[in-house]
Design a protein that fits this description.
Blueprint lengths: L1 H4 L1 E2 H5 L5 H4 L7 H18 L5 H22 L5 E2 L3 H17 L3 H19 L4 H7 L5 H26 L1
Amino acid sequence: MYEVLRYERAAVLGGQPWRLLSAHAVHLGWVHCLMNVGGLVLCAAFAAGTLSWRAWATAIVVLALGVGMLLLVASPRATNYAGLSGVLYGLFIWVLLPRAWRGERVALIVLVAILARIGWQMFHPPAEVQRALIGGEVMVEAHLYGALCALALCLWQGAWAYLRRV
């Protein structure tokens, strides 16, 4: 299943667009999967029941497609990708940004830490121990793309809520 579902640039361009979404459901190994599930649980804890299952599902699909499309368009050297980390970074931004905007200090601190982590990753390659732990390369571009897609999603949701009130 991994071979059929992972993001593979040539396969997407060859007529297999489902890989833009399905790549986020497969992982390089059990450790990689458990790290992503742990991050998802932590993100859900930050949300603390404030978002509906429909909002979560919509955000996950939008972020997954956004990350996949940005990998395709903006990262032509990214030929393979698997994992939830790009979507996960986006989910953290999506959950924390509105709370930080409302003045919640903890949300702001965690949001700044996540953004700092993405910035660090962009200029400092992942350690060999990290690659060994997950069983492959860390695609830091996916983390950035997830954050950018989440920012766009937050702006769209804010604009939509404003237009509904007007």
